[in-house]
Amino acid sequence: MKWVPMVEKANRRAVKVLGVRGFYMLFTILTVLLLSGAYSKWGGP
């Protein structure tokens, strides 16, 4: 789990730049993209 501090640092920088709302929006968009990608890959028509 060596990469966790790096992720934490990047997250903190993103929050500082975007603000908390922008960060959560970005996170939500990323999650939706990942989920839709996984769905179309495995469970999609």
Which short descriptors sum up this protein?
45 residues, mainly alpha, 1 helix, 89% helix
Describe the structure.
This protein has 45 residues and is mainly α. The longest helix is centred in the middle third of the chain and has 40 residues.
Count of β-strands: 0
Strand content: under 5%
Low-confidence stretches: none
SSE order: H
Structural class: mainly alpha
Overall pLDDT level = 85
Q: In DSSP terms, counting alpha (H) and pi (I) runs of 4 or more, how many helices?
A: 1
Radius of gyration: 14 Å
Helix content: over 70%
Give the N-to-C terminal Cα separation: 37 Å
Shape: flat
Largest sheet: none
Which helices and strands occur, and which strands form pairs?
Blueprint: H1 4-43
